[in-house]
């Protein structure tokens, strides 16, 4: 009969246990980091570092070392794409460094703003409204406009030839509660069709998916169309789709806000000089875009190539670019209407939007250039 093994000293057991725990932790930490990176902000974030730039040598620093700006790799965010790519924002910021981060849709960017991961964002009206109301009016302010238009419902013409054919079909939007999602749900409600706002199930199936996968989903037939911003809309057209609705046609004067500039209230309070510099960069960029449309289109495409790994084909960007109007005006009156659309869609209770705008910094920039002030439609901060 063999004798029982002699137990190891407690100190040896303790050292072994510590080593084993350290090895396990070392194995787990990369996985945690990977999960954090892949999840990003929100359910369908598509976030990545973008055109950050170093200030010019000797440039005077403002009150912050760095300003973190969020935006989308969409042509409806052309102000950010071009302003960052051409260094216009960085020039106006002087020695304060710009750090850019991109997102797939507004709700994820709003979460980043609320989590203090970005300071300023280019964002659609619906996520701005949601972020403001859900925080009791304490999270953000809209400080400027950027773009109007550039949104279409593109469908498979073999399956859908009229609006009535949408019943029973699968139509994509970029994310639950984003501006296009709200617009589509509101439009469906106006047609008398029933769709559960959270699940997207009903007479028409609303499929929430990132713009980056929508075109392939359309090609494979897993969706029948999409209510999306540019350039995704024109990518769908190039893939054989047909425009069923241009959202501009649904608005008086064909004007509606699609992209605002927002800032966290804490950053606005602590660094008003940085905020004004960003707005100066926005105004300078918009002026250059509108004066140089061909060059601006090429610059936006170069920025998209840097962010996504490939430029848009000429056929796509040539189709998309004319449908977007670049503007400093936030078109505040249309924000009220978009808030009503979210209520109609069942995604929002009647909001109190008083105080959502602070356009004083923008109007100072416009005044310095001899231009008229823009209106907050009675929704300005006290």
TrEMBL record:
Which InterPro entries did the record assign?
Answer: ABC_SsuA_sub-bd, NrtA/CpmA_ABC-bd_dom
A GO MF annotation of the entry reads: ATPase-coupled transmembrane transporter activity
For this protein, the record's Pfam families field holds: NMT1_2 (PF13379)
Gene3D superfamilies, per the entry: Periplasmic binding protein-like II (3.40.190.10)
Per the annotation, which location comes first and is thus the protein's main one? Answer: membrane
Q: Which GO terms describe its cellular component?
A: periplasmic space; plasma membrane
Where it sits in the cell: the answer is: Cell inner membrane; Periplasm
Which keywords are on file for this protein?
A: Cell inner membrane, Cell membrane, Membrane, Signal, Transport
Record-stated family:
Belongs to the bacterial solute-binding protein SsuA/TauA family.
PANTHER family, alphabetized: ALIPHATIC SULFONATES-BINDING PROTEIN-RELATED (PTHR30024), TAURINE-BINDING PERIPLASMIC PROTEIN (PTHR30024:SF47)
- Its protein name is Aliphatic sulfonate ABC transporter substrate-binding protein
Q: Which organism is it from?
A: Streptomyces montanisoli
